Amino acid sequence: MSAATSHFPNNHLETSLVFANHAVVFTGKLASFPRSEVQELVRKLGGATPSGINKNVTLLAIGDEGYLKEMVKSKKLKRAEEINAGGGNIRIISETEFLEMAGLESKATLEQKFYSLDRVQSVFPNIRPDLVKYFARWGLFRPAVKTNADQYYQFKDLLLFRQINELLSQGLPLRKIAARLVAAQSLSTQIPISFEEFKPRGQVLAMSRAPEQPARTAEEWYAIGYECDNNPETYDKAIAAYENALAQHPNYVEAMINLANIYYARRELKRARQLLERAVQLDPDNHTIYYNLGNVYDEAAELQRALQAYQKAIVLHPEYEPALFNLALIYERLGLVSKAEILWRKYLEVDPMGEWADVAREHLQEERRGATG
After folding, report:
1. Do domains 3-106 and 114-188 have the same CATH topology?
2. How far, in Å, CA of 96 to CA of 92, rounded?
3. Is the CB of residue 256 less than 8 Å from the CB of residue 275?
4. pLDDT in tens, 255-309
5. What is the 8-class DSSP label of residue 210?
6. pTM, rounded to two decimals
7. Is residue 148 within 8 Å of 31, Cβ to Cβ?
8. Is 253 in contact with 286 (CB distance < 8 Å)?
9. Which contiguous run of DSSP H or E holds residue 183?
10. Quick one: 192-284 is in which CATH superfamily?
């Protein structure tokens, strides 16, 4: 199906001849479709598409990406104005007006319903157009609508773009990022999970309970939770939102992680642990899950489990500063000073000006004094 016919039902072409008795000419760069496709559309809708301006032309549509934007008159536009000044009746319209006549969605309408690639890039600066193409080849997403000038994505794609943006900021290889996200998508559709074994407050993850507002999608609930989970005063709203997301999408790993982090902050360790142990089954290559599990085990004084979790996080992401720091602390608590010193040095190599750099230097100094004292 060509792009020119992708925004409305096929029977629209057969039953609505909106351009009957019209001769339509286009000028300027079109935002919606290539010129040949939009001319074909006009003909299917009963109109004619002469190559130039003459007295028989009834409509001149100016491309939204062309002369309307630059405020420069094309030869066709000047000729149409001359004909009109001499008594002609050529209606000069924008591309948006043309699309509305044809029953298609304009750029303005699409931007209300979807998220353009330009908008995505303004929010997530690491998402370059070439990277969008790269990750699209892995089958991670596809535009809901693709026009001549832009691509438009659904809300659910924004969450994936955010993940990619964060992983890129961590310096992970593109192939590893893509493989991880593909695996996560595959697991989320293949692994059935029951949440009956843990139901925070007896109301959240019971699959028989409908979400509070069924009209919202799991992704929308997740976005609400994400907006509220940085402030302890809005934790309850965040919890309710993540729980609703999980009620609709039981394998939603990101929602599990964020919900677990809130429970951890509230020292509700059992709930946090259950969520993270379930999440790691779904996404075993996610270093942040192992790091968070290490924190939970550490709080529960299960040092060997914490050590193993931090070690796994570092295997997956060798330069993950928080795991390096916490694992060094665990080694010190277990009396493994030489191993701790290696990690303090590694941490300072990775992040010499980080928020814990001074603490790491102090630990190294203490170890040196202990070795020479």
Report:
1. no
2. 12
3. yes
4. 999 999 999 888 889 999 999 999 999 999 999 999 999 999 988 889 899 999 9
5. P
6. 0.44
7. yes
8. yes
9. helix 174-190
10. Tetratricopeptide repeat domain (1.25.40.10)
Cβ–Cβ under 8 Å, residues 341 and 367: yes
Task: For residue 355, give the nearest of 321, 323, 314 by alpha carbon.
Answer: 321
The Cα 328–Cα 360 span in angstroms is 9
Q: Are 304 and 337 in contact (CB under 8 A)?
A: no
Q: Please work out, in degrees rounded to the nearest 5, the angle formed at the alpha carbon of residue 291 by the alpha carbons of 285 and 292.
A: 110
pLDDT digits (tens, 9 = 90+) for 173-215: 776 787 788 777 765 544 443 333 333 333 334 333 444 444 6
Alpha carbons 264 and 258: distance in angstroms, whole number: 10
Of 171, 180, 178, 209, residue with least CA distance to 319:
171
Per-residue pLDDT, 72? 60
In angstroms, the Cα distances linking 185 to 53, 172, 179, 181, 182 are 53, 19, 10, 6, 5
Instruction: Measure the CA–CA gap between 242 and 159, rounded to whole angstroms.
Output: 14
- The angle subtended at Cα 246 by Cα 241 and Cα 251, nearest 5°, is 145
CA distances from 62 to 25, 66, 86, 90, 110 (A): 9, 7, 21, 13, 19
| Look-up of token digits 């202990």 | 370
Q: Where are the domains of the chain?
A: 3-106, 114-188, 192-284, 298-373
* Spatial contact of 44 and 13, defined as CB atoms under 8 Å apart: yes
* CA distances to 64, 270, 272 from 230, in Å: 41, 21, 16
The rounded distance, in Å, linking the Cα atoms of 37 and 45 is 12
Strand arrangement, sheet containing 151-153: 115-116, 151-153, 145-146
